[in-house]
Amino acid sequence: MTPPYIFVCRICCNNAQKAVSEIVPNADFLKGPYQNVDAAYKNHYTLLLKETFPVGDVHDRRRSITFMKRYAGVLLSVTSLPSKYGIGCFDQAAYDFVDWLVKAGQRYWQILPLGATSHGGSDDSPYQAYSAFAGNPYMISLDDLIKEGLLSRRECNAVDFGDNPAKVDFDKLHENRLKLLHLAYQRSNISQDPDFVAFCKDNYWWLDDYALFMALKKFFKEVSFREWPEDIRMHWGFALDYYNRTLYFDVEFQKFLQFKFDQQWTKLKKYANDRHIQIV
Fold this sequence. Notes:
three-stranded parallel beta sheet; 10 helices; five-stranded antiparallel beta sheet; alpha/beta; 280 residues; 41% helix
């Protein structure tokens, strides 16, 4: 008896159900809003089908069919992990949670978006991020920076991250955690790190603009970019050159944050994947 699978099929043709049936004989189409597939020639429809298939992943490039085995998992935002530094991050608690998922027989860790959130009116919502590519610097593990010698335990313990362990104080994080991260940057000599140089080169297509944007937000006292001077607001070339020179170290600090985020996130994700935990 082979295990049940659910797969998602995205097709555009005159008769999507007939096309699917050619690949999966006797496919059982789930009832729902996509039951009427005759209009598929107008749009790309997502069709959920239920059938029993052999173990393994199958991908038909011609019709983009992907088979996914049904497993159990847990939804937990990284920021909800326990931490003595104000917010959940990529520290030991994250690795302990992966180990717990393995012991509990889970296969999926569903997280919330990891993007760099805006501070203030959005309440640091993960669904209102500054970038689709940049990671949230709050998730950088201070313990890892201590191990690298960029911070000391005493410096981290001396910072006020709030007095309610059940709630994140984003105002204090914004004021204090970024100061610690900037201190780590100042001690890092990051421009001499070949891995950092390679990271910046590989990601220039989003990182350069993002880092400058974040540096400019601080320079202009966090006001909306609509209130910035016209030359930089309109991305004029001479203004980009001027502010990149003027704010060089602020821009590099933002790149440092993304580099450390990427390092720690990649390490955590590999740890989970090596133990057959998929992060979704």
